[in-house]
Amino acid sequence: MDTSARHRFWEINVSGHSRPVLAADVLSVIGDKIESHGSPILRAKIAKSLAENPNKPYLECCECGNSLFYRNGGIHSTAHFYHSSNHVKDLERLQRCQFYTATNSKLLSEIYNGEGAWHFKTKHKLAKLLEESPYIKNNSVLVEKYIFDDSHEINVRRKPDIQFEDDLGQLWALELTRWWMNPLTIEMRQVFYKNKGINLLWLFSPDCKLQNKSTWDQIMFGSNIEIERGCNNVDAQCNAFSITDETLLVSEKTKLLSFVVEYPIYYFSENEKLIKTNFGSEPTDLKQLVTDPTKRLPYAVNTTKSLITAKEHARKYNRSTFAGLLRSLRFEYSKMVFSVNKMFWFEHFNADMLRHFDALVPTGFELGSRAMIIRSKLYEQYSKSLELSKRNSKAEMLNNLRRYFHLSKNIRASALFELQEFLKLGIPQPLIGNYRFADSAKWMYKKIEVRVEEQIERNRTANRIRYRKNKLRTYKDLAQSRPEDLSLVYKYTHQLIRDIGPDSKRLTCLVKAYLAKLTVQQEKYQAMNTAQFEREKAIYDNKIARIQRELTQLKAELNDKKIIELPVSNSAIETRFNRLIKDCMKMNLDHEVNDLKSMRKQYKHSVYEQMMFNRYPKIFSVYSKGFCLDVDYDDEIHRLIQASDDQSIKDKSELFIQKGERRLLELYEFNVSCELHWVQNMDQLPSNEVLIEMKKNSASRARRLIKALQPLINSGHTKCIDLELAQWLLSKYKFIRKNPNAVRY
Fold first, then answer.
1. Model-level pTM?
2. 285 and 248, same structural domain?
3. DSSP labels for 104-160?
């Protein structure tokens, strides 16, 4: 807790003052009311008192009784009071003091944050207000001072929060409370002040009624109502007083202690038939209180009148109710007397009427002899009819039990549900008490339980058998529709025998007979599958052998070059290749498939080379030997370009040949481009050497190369040819032709 909060409820005894002063208010009650004089004057008085008499300090802590000192505030601290270890009267009390700086102040913080803060502030405000009030005798206001008992044998003392004497000579003790108090403590304080003739005034905090209703009710009702004398005497006045901020302001203005009185307002509720309580409140002050300290607590509002009025209302209401019940009893009595069937009267008679009537009799009403006779006759007839009704009810219950017992001998489906519902209700209690047929009823009920359990178990067994029969029927249908699953059906059917167990021997025999039949059927199916497998294996082996023969024959024909047919899609050789590949893929002969694909590729390549060599032998030599300057390719290149660009070919064989010619043309174009780049690389030599080289060859290389480039450029086949290089070559050639003597040897 910080210093300023501690000083707001730290009480200090100041020399020359009749009551303690809060540490936060010390500077305001001493000095000459000049702000700058307060601290010097206070320190001077403390030093002077210690110098004159160290045992009578100017400031003294109310908690431990030790002297206090004052320290001015600085940059990092505030002005505050403190204990000094050099001036100590009682070291043990100092160490226990909650305001000593070396002491753990956790308890102090809890007190301040709980009841302490309100209690300390209000106590000192009231004390200051009473000292200034003209209705209070001078110097009679004391705070936290003991009052001793007059008896010399018992040492009893009380320390009220505030005590004073008013101008009429009455003694007062104020007790401030907010939280719970022990009822014994409350009673002992009230007895003490009553014996001393002091008016005890309990003052609650504004929220005490919500926070601590038990103490609030104890002081309002328990302290004001005496059980021996009842609530009808004038001394039984129930009042509770509370202090609020508004009443403190009123007290400061009027110079008279003011507070709020809360009091009960009693009324009788006819619906609940109880005396209920509402609460009212109004402001009042010390002068308006009615006092008699030796008999009761002070009160401001008389509450006895409303209680007496409520009780009178309740008495009239009960008397009216009693009269109505008496008339109803007389009417019921006449009905009973003239009734032929007493049980019919009993079934329609309301017994609560008698109980309500008896409940009202002890409230002070006197019954006449006629009313007593009617009451006793009704009770007598009601008791007889009640006993007869119980016997009839037991007989009906026993007959009902016998009916269910006979019904359980041969239980049908509809009767089983009815018996189960009967067993849920259990055996009727009247039949198992003090009843002569109790043993017979228990035996029949137990027998019904056993029979119902047996029937339920039989139903469960029948359901299991029915379920197993349906499974057997399903297995039979599965064996007929899917003979390949006979082994699985046999396995499940064999498990069915274990599932049936002892439930049905007949069904077990049927399952075993079907298993024998299923075994024969399974053997036939296995024999049929074996024969089918042998046939399929023979067919498979024949297919493999045929494929191997055809493959060997095809390899031999290709090696001997007996096949010269073009490999187009509709040719016989292509058809043979496709058929063999398809057959090998069906038979999962992956190695043979790869061989066939490789053979077809090699055959197409060989046919292509043979046809190109036959048609264009010079150009084909470029493919195998490279571009030669001594060969004249002019005639063949024109024919090759014309054949490659022909768009009117539709025949598949001619299209295959055209595809090969286009490929050959691309190879020729690539070789010419390579030769052109070789000539261009010669340009990196000195210019005279280039001219000498071209002169030595009589310009044949350039002429041949230009002649080879012209048909390609004219036909647009220049995909691999650099046209700028071709133009450069043509310009060099023209220069040599025009200047034959430009080269010096």
1. 0.46
2. yes
3. --HHHHHHIIIIIHHHHHHHHHHHHHHHH-TTB-TT--EES--EE-S-SSS--EE--
